[in-house]
């Protein structure tokens, strides 16, 4: 057994492990279609390596060589389909499958050309390069927010495409790819080609796996930080994201404000109309808050009937206008499960971050402003203009918060 055949066996088992890894993700999250396609792609990779290993056993290798080519090209197409599903792009199945058919027919006919013909070698390798460039286009055309792992994946896809495109020239430089398909495994080029395939195939698989795991963890974190009823951040999630927003605002040198809202007389709504009506009130206010918030705002339900929103890039005056607009609009909204004439109101406290303060200081001052709004008859907005003392202090006692 030559070195190239040994690498083929290693690739066969590695492809199997990667297929199993992607399948485990698909089983863990049945809605993650991308993992199923990636697993299928590496299963096809296993089939390709098995076929390649068996070629020396055939006297007429043309059908086997073309089958191996089609199976491996199919594996790259399945990989592209998985990437498309992951990045929210419509998979270009029709053009990719048409390309598979045309390329396979071309590889069949170029078998009549001299073994070391550059045209023959390019007909075999360039389709793989084309599919890697197609994968690069899929990731690049996605409207999803991309991070460092995604950028690295794009770079490796580009490099992989280039190594496929360069293989005919590498084969020529290394003395060709054997006098016949059966002799391919004994050539220096086969060793180099299989080694390159192992490196890039493993790198792409690990990156795709890391990206899927990243997404699974991010979604799990998001679910743990989301309030089920309001579909806003819960208190823990709000505080974590608010801290990040404050740090970003301070680093960029822009103002940041916090608005806290509390639904007025909420207990009486539950007592008079039932908890289902109270839930509708919370859902209505949360829905209004989501619509009013910009993409860079951070909104959450931080208590039973208490909500908060961080407004990066917003000073105290603009935050007060936001709160006044929210108060006025919410007070005019009809709410399901409540009588037509019944309107709900909310009280608001507003504070802007001062130099030297942290999130807890900002939250304390906004909460004090909210208490003032409650003490002023509710359905109003109050602002905090003075920096909080950086020490524990008692909150004003106002009865009837709710």
Automatic annotation (TrEMBL):
EC assignment: 2.7.7.65
CDD domains tied to this protein: GGDEF
Domain of life: Bacteria
One Pfam match: GGDEF
GO MF term set: diguanylate cyclase activity
Stretches assigned to the GGDEF domain: 254-386
Chain segments annotated as transmembrane: 6-27, 39-58, 64-81, 93-110, 122-139, 151-171, 191-213
A cellular component annotation (GO) from this entry: plasma membrane
GO biological process: cell adhesion involved in single-species biofilm formation; negative regulation of bacterial-type flagellum-dependent cell motility
Record keywords: Membrane, Transmembrane, Transmembrane helix
Annotated catalysed reactions: 2 GTP = 3',3'-c-di-GMP + 2 diphosphate
Protein name: diguanylate cyclase
